[in-house]
């Protein structure tokens, strides 16, 4: 009898185990009123195989990207691949999770299985489960196929991100950067955000993270920047959470080290300079 992935060990430099002891797995299945969703392999392949075009290169040229060997990058990549492995086991190693050295709140994805999260987003989340919720939401966008060609958008294009809906009036007055026609990137809409939230809840449950972390994070952001959409989104998440079991949540030593590193680097006067400029 095969065991299903429904527990999480600490995210660190090692590959995160995805298999829970059978008694715990059986307990979670009994507790959950609704069977875990089955993610179609074609959705995984579509998300990974859509070309990102020039988007990745443009982002790298506009923002400083953390080196893949950086502890923060390694932590985020390990967590992201753990999430994907539990829904797309055949292709999880081909997805990319990139950390941007930017204290603004940023979390977005481009086609081809590439997810970006900023230092500012990492500083804002308070638990590992909240960070997992942000990454799962972006993975959800890709699995749902929420991408369009930039030239399909009549009034120009700018990247939307997980946090932008809480700062709409200020955020939408400024384009983050223009994307060339060959890129496939997200287009914001309330319906697509909700579809990504639904995907995220299932991804969190399958990966052993508490699905309620998404609600906690959205509520905290909405308290700071209330809006009609935020209230609607919270209501929808609450309704769906009745179908999910609550899972324990804790912060690992590696997560606390990540928070400390970002806090210390963010307070440095040379934070926005590239590493080679500091030599």
Description:
The protein is mainly α and 279 residues long. The chain has one domain (41-262). The chain contains 11 helices and 5 strands; from the N terminus they run ααααβββααβαβαααα. A 3-stranded mixed β-sheet has the order 1-3-2. α8 (190-207) runs parallel beside α10 (228-241) and α9 (212-224) runs antiparallel to α10 (228-241). The longest helix is centred in the C-terminal third of the chain and has 18 residues, at 190-207. The protein is globular. The model is unreliable at 1-38, 150-158, 169-184 and 275-279 (pLDDT under 50).
Helix segment tally? 11
Task: Look at the structure and give the mean pLDDT.
Answer: 75
Q: How much is the radius of gyration in Å?
A: 18 Å
Helix content: 40-55%
Overview features:
6% strand; 11 helices; disordered C terminus; 279 residues; disordered N terminus; 46% helix; 3-stranded mixed β-sheet
Secondary structure elements and pairings:
Layout: H1 22-31, H2 41-49, H3 55-62, H4 71-85, E1 96-100, E2 107-110, E3 114-118, H5 119-124, H6 128-143, E4 148-149, H7 168-171, E5 184-185, H8 190-207, H9 212-224, H10 228-241, H11 253-266
